[in-house]
Design brief:
7 helices, homodimer, about 240 residues, Phosphate-specific transport system accessory protein PhoU (chains A, B), cytoplasm (chains A, B), mainly alpha, phosphate transport (chains A, B), PhoU (chains A, B), Methane Monooxygenase Hydroxylase, Chain G, domain 1, PhoU_dom (chains A, B)
């Protein structure tokens, strides 16, 4: 795969990498815009995010078609086959990230009228910042075939989980303080959960990428524990 | 693929079908047991569901290995390649169904102590019944290569969505009635959402299966609308 021996196969693989990068850029843009729309209660911006989901589907279908054609035509073995199958999987994770952003956007109208307390919107915003940094860098590290970088990204998912737990607790508190907050907070809860799930998809991508680059599985995933599953707040 | 010409390739494909069936059976068992544990507040039963997730991972890895070996060894074209790649994808969806059941099981301890109102547990139970029927039959219809059956299953996901919306509304009502219900109801909300997402994975499996069997995509998905994203309850 060195620069000196760029085969036709490598060129087709570069094309697949390009599509993965496009998908990651689109997904990151959707996540960022959905959170902005959510915190501003901007229904029109939310609608634009929702319509961008079709772009992701088109990219994914193009990538799948190219990958399947490539397997049929070149009949790659071992590492090359692993790369092509891995690309199909990564595209699946990126498509789901777009889906989750769309779901956040769909909730804007249900949340919007009520408005979000300042400290809460700060919590969601900083969670989104963490998630966006991860979405951006995981594909960079993969395209650079940087195994160590991918391992670091996988391990950083923990920060997102911690941030999610804090937002979750704060949302429960708001609901308990005033029942009129319950509907909006419930939707914000799902939005925060979506961000946490986007982090999980980044973890998947990092693991798939690491396997492609190194041929080895990352050491069994750190014990993942969604702390909120055991949260008893206020009692 | 007729019965009269069972090649070595077909035999290996049958082996992959067998693994998909095992995964579907395990996933259905996990979903059923997680809901029983949830409604009974049975932490020990929940723990058994959580530990079964490792079985799913093992199946998935075995299926992936077989599929990749098969592609490398037989270098299948067109429909056969579509079948093998489709199997890898279906295994991914089944693995996620197991994951979602595990997530329900993890919430048992947070919900358990509080107890679930009768009408609510009836709602969740009947949602689970719908979902279980879908998980069981989608793989049956796929293994029988029954395209029409798969189309029917895809379209029936709507019933699950309707059921989810009803449970969602009821949960919001309980939270508003008494703030002490909020923590438990929040976890039940995620459990109901998990069941709805399991339905979405069944839809994916039906679509992948239909494509393998017929070579055509199912008509663009019916306009899916999670009604709860627009629900304003009680105000």
């Amino acid at each position: 795969m060195g620069e000196h021996t760029v085969s036709a196969f490598d060129q087709e693989l570069n094309e697949i990498d390009r599509l993965i990068r496009e998908m990651a850029d689109t997904a990151a843009r959707m996540v960022s815009a959905s959170i902005k729309a959510l915190l501003a209660g901007d229904a029109a911006a939310a609608q634009r995010v929702i319509s961008e989901d079709a772009v992701m589907d088109t990219y994914q279908r193009e990538l799948d078609d190219r990958a399947i054609t490539l397997i049929g035509k070149r009949q790659p073995m071992a590492q090359d086959l692993r790369t092509v199958l891995g690309a199909i999987r990564m595209a699946g994770d990126l498509e789901r990230i777009g889906d989750l952003a769309k779901n956040i956007a769909k909730r804007v109208s249900a949340v919007g009228s009520i408005g979000t307390p300042k400290s809460l919107s700060h919590g969601i915003d900083s969670m989104a910042t963490l998630v966006l940094a991860q979405v951006g860098s995981v594909v960079d590290r993969y395209v650079a075939r940087d195994g160590d970088g991918l391992r670091v990204i996988r391990d950083e998912d923990q920060k997102i989980d911690v941030s999610y737990t804090a937002v979750f607790r704060e949302l429960l508190t708001y609901m308990m303080e005033d029942p009129r907050n319950i509907t909006a907070c419930t939707h914000l809860l799902f939005c925060a959960k979506n961000l946490e799930r986007i982090g999980d998809h980044v973890t998947n991508i990092a693991e798939i990428g690491y396997f492609i680059v190194t041929g080895a599985q990352l050491p069994t995933q750190r014990p993942k524990f969604d702390e909120t599953t055991a949260a008893i707040v206020g009692s």
